[in-house]
Amino acid sequence: LPKPIDDRIAAGIIFGLGLAGVLLNFTGALLTFRVTALRTSFGRLTAVHCFADGAILVIFTFCAYEDHGSLLSQKIGQVSLYFWFLGLYTHFGIALNRFSLLFLPWIYKEVFQRRTSWLILFNVLICTCHFCVYFGDGCDFYYNAETYFWEYADTPCGKAVAFWLDLSLGCAICITVLLLDIICVVKMRKSASV
User: Fold this and answer.
1) How far, in Å, CA of 170 to CA of 163, rounded?
2) How confident is the model at residue 1, as a pLDDT?
3) At the N or C end, where does the chain have fewer CB atoms within 10 A?
């Protein structure tokens, strides 16, 4: 296929899937405020997670077509990383929510029932710190329309943040979430079999 047709096919796929994801995530975030059973710390954390995922998809769907050498493209990439880390930390908060409910109810009551807003604010502040890192010289993150990939700048700073902040920290958090969730599932299965 000639390149322009490839571009149109890729754009159509990105737009269709992205728009569906945007609608589903923002609907999910809104439902957590409408459904009485979700007016809990879990529901609030889930709403933040859905909002962050929806914001990333808005960027991927509507803003990824900017020339990757432009300042606007690099700043859009920074904003997407802000929401990526917000979603990642909120996912960690949701896993801690489940774990503390099952194993540490006094911490659940103190942190998640009484201070959920503070936990969410803390996540937002940590993500803002991550966001500021990308203002460093050569720490750019952008969508490359030629390869259809999001890329970090090929600079020492770009390589460092890609490895340490994105890959290493992201994998560590995902592994921790996975372990906490496995422990919770084992505990619930044992409780159900008794």
Assistant:
1) 10
2) 47
3) C
Beta-sheet pairing, 141-144 with 149-152: antiparallel
Q: How far, in Å, are 60, 126, 137 from residue 97 at the CA level?
A: 29, 18, 38
Q: And the tokens for 30? A: 């809104």
What mean pLDDT value characterizes the chain? 90
Residue scoring higher pLDDT (6 or 87)? 87
The neighbour count for residue 146, using CB atoms within 10 Å, is 9
With a cut of 50, say whether residue 144 has pLDDT above it.
Answer: yes
Q: What angle do CA 33, 121, 119 make, to 5 degrees?
A: 80
Of 80, 62, 61, 59, nearest to 130 by C-alpha is 80
**For residue 19, what pLDDT is reported?**
96
Rounded to whole angstroms, the Cα distance separating 87 from 48 reads: 7
User: How many Å apart are CA 39 and CA 9, to the nearest integer?
Assistant: 41
| DSSP of 101-114 | HHH-HHHIIIIIIT
Please state the φ and ψ torsions of residue 151, each to the nearest 5 degrees. Answer: -135, 150
Token reading at 46: 């889930």
To the question of pTM greater than 0.85 for the whole model, the response is yes
Please name the helix (run of DSSP H) or strand (run of DSSP E) that holds residue 49, with its range, or none. helix 41-58
